[in-house]
Amino acid sequence: MSARQTAAKKAAAAPTKPEEQEPAQEPAAPEPEAPAPDQAYVDALQREREGYVRYDRTDRLKDVDAELNRLGAPLERAVTRPPETA
Questions:
Q1: Sign of torsion, CA 20 23 18 21?
Q2: How far apart are CA 64 and CA 70, in angstroms?
Q3: Measuring CA to CA, which residue among 77, 17, 10, 11 is closest to residue 44?
Q4: Lowest CB count within 10 Å: 16, 32, 50, 69, which one?
């Protein structure tokens, strides 16, 4: 192997200089965070619970309360009943 071929192999094997490397990509702007799947599920259960309380569906309310308790979610949302119509 000639001296020229040896020099070419060394140059190819040598790490590139930092200024020769491609610039790092800029991080994308953070997207608004969606609620965690568990939180979205809890929110849905709480909305479902509000409807059951509003329309006096105590049979279904027990199941939703049990699931919210299993998840450790508080039962803090206030519910108002719609006005009675004659």
A1: negative
A2: 10
A3: 77
A4: 32
Task: Give the start-end residues of each E strand in 25-84.
Answer: none
C-alpha distances in Å from residue 9, one per residue of 13, 51, 67: 6, 75, 67
- Amino acid, res. 70: R
d(CA 81, CA 49): 13
Place of tokens 């009943």: 81
Whose tokens are 């259960």? That residue is: 45
Q: How confident is the model over 37-81, as pLDDT tens digits?
A: 688 899 999 999 999 999 999 999 999 999 998 888 877 655 556
Give the amino acid at 29: A
Could you tell me if 45 and 72 are in contact, meaning their C-beta atoms sit under 8 angstroms apart?
Answer: no
